Please model this.
Amino acid sequence: MADDPSLISRRSALKCLAYGGAGTLFTLASGVLVPLDLAQAATAQGATGRPLFLQISDTHIGFSKEANPDVAGTLMRTIELVNGMPEAPLLTIHTGDITHLSKPSEFDLAQQMLGGLRAGDLHTVPGEHDTTDPAVSEYFSRFGKASDNRGYYSFDHGGVHFMALVNVLEFKAGGLGTLGEAQVAWATADLKGRSASTPIVVFAHMPLWTIYEPWGWGTGDAQPLIAQLRRFGSVTILNGHIHQIVQKVEGNITYHTARSTAYPQPAAGVGAGPGPLKVPADELSSLLGITSVAKLRHPPTLALTDATLA
Amino acid sequence: MRAPGPVALLGACAALLLAVATAVAAVPETQIVIKDFMFGPASVTVKAGTTVTWVNRDDEPHTIASDSGLYRSGALDTGGEFHFTFDKPGTYHYVCTIHPRMLGTIIVEP
Model:
């Protein structure tokens, strides 16, 4: 595949990714992300037509500062965008920071609004903003059932194995996100004996690869797990946390972070820290959005589409 | 009974002010300002019995959590405050659980 002139180079593919906005579809072929023209993709042989799942992230219900005084409004627009899709996704994952301050009222509003999504069952992982209540109980009392209150769990859907991981609880002072020994042992057992041809989707709040260490954008103990994922033919690792799209492809593993529905954050290292980024009002919609993922049959892999509210 | 004259009133007010000032002085306080994802100052030395107040001046929430589990604030939104009184001498490390790279230390002297 590498010498197939019809495939664009990894460098130019990544260049396209850097500018990837709404309506760009990427397929993974031999470890190279290939942007396709959307019109072509719509009729592409092998596409199922229906998105396998939707990723929504960093809704931050409760935030009301200048960067977006109406995060409930932008979440509602997101829900309308999803509900207006020609084919409803089969399920939805929320990659954390459902709320801004872990308040019961914020969780209640978020849960009520997300209930309006016509996009299959909702699967969640917590973000660090969801677990700041001293008892760390508000998230788990609402979303803990699927994982027996551990936060991490796995399930199968549409021939794809999904692993929901938590990297915001066992934080290390001065360090990155942490999965913890118990979770890594669980994930190891979960992957053991699984066929390498099963597409794997791993999702967690904080990136599972180090994007920018000074801001804590990474997971310190993820490498042993990544090593176990390398034998699989198609691995998609999805995160939120950084409120912007950053992607990386490494062998058969695609890493992708989703936009927030609430507010953007600065690019790595720009400014004092990873706080809300104020942008002109007419630019905000183009920086908020969702990711939808379709399963392709040939090759058996996943295709990611990022859409904005603009 | 004759109403108190202006001089007597002034005296009473002065006494009240003195009492308030004495009460404030009796509880030593130190403030740490959180700004630009940093505790300022990051290390503070206080006398035992001092109440430390953290105030968040960022647009992003922060938390104050002791390494030892001695205290843990909820999320402090912009302008939010958290107080803790350090009674026993020792060195107390703390972190923001939302941004674990934000570290601080309180050194409490006898």
